[in-house]
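Minutes, project check-in
Item: structure for the 295-residue chain
Input as provided by the requester:
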Amino acid sequence: MRQELSVLLPSYNDECVELVSQLATECASINGLQFEIIVGDDGSTDTNVVNTNKQINNIPNCRFILNNKNIGRAAIRNRLAQQSKYNWLLFIDSDMSVISHDFIHKYLCAEGQVVYGGYKVIGDSKYYAGNLRFLYEKKAEPALTYEQRCQHPFADFHTSNFLIAKSIFSSMPLDCRFTQYGYEDVLYGRTLKENGIMINHIDNPLGFSRFEDNIHFVRKSEEGLRTLHTFRKELEGYSRLLSIVEKTNQYHLSPLIRFVYNRQKKNWYNNLCSTKPSLFLFKLYKLGYYLSLIP
C-alpha cells in the first residue's frame, strides 16, 4: 500500500472547495498516509470562482495556486507535477465529484505505475433530456466501463482521474503543444504504450455531473476537432473519427459529405443548440466539420 500521495487538480472556472474537502477528509483518515492536495488555477476568468477556491488554503495539507495566464490543459498538469513533493501523483479534474467512500484507498492499494479509475455520468435523464453533453456522455458510457476499458487499455485513457509514479511523469510529461481543448490524454496513452508502460484499469470512477450548455459544448467539440486535425498523424489509430475519415476517403465519400455539410451545417448547428438535440446529427456535424478542415 502506498504511503504518500500528491493529489493534483487543474482548474478553470470550477468551484472545487467541496471536492478538495472530501478528498482531504479521506486522506486524513488513512493511517500513515503523507499527502498534499494542490489545485492549480489555469487563468480562470470568473473572479467569484477564484475567490471561493482561495478557501482551499484553509484546509490542512491543501493549497491553491493561481496562474494569471491560461497555459493549457497539458502545461497546467505538468506544472502541478513540478510543484508536488511526493512520489505518487493522482490527477483529478476539478469538475468531478467523489462518489465512493474509499476512492483514495483503492488507488493506494492498486498495482502498477499508471492506474486509471474511469468516470461515471451522474444526473437525472429527465432533467438533462435537452443537454447535448449529457446525452453524448450517457450514450458513450457503456463503452467506458471497467470491463470495456481493460480491452483497450491505451486507447481508453483519460487524464481526468489517474494515478502515476512521479518518476514516470517527470520523464514523460504531457505534450505542451496541446494548448487547445482535446486529445492530449489520447496521445499520452500512445506514449505510454510506445515506452512499454502498462496502464492498469480499475473500477474506481469519479462522478461527472457538470454539463455545459449546448452552444458551449458544440464550440468545445469544434475546438477538439481542430486539435485532432493538427495532430492527426500522431493520433492515427487512436481516434474513432480518424478511422471513419479514412474509410470515407477509401470509398471516395469525403467530397459528398463535405458538400452535404456545407449545405446543412447551419440547420444541424441549430438543432444541436436546441432543446432537442440529435446525437445522430452531432456525429454528422463532427465528421463534416473535420472534413471541412482538410484543404
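Outcome recorded: The radius of gyration is 20 Å.
No further action items on this chain.
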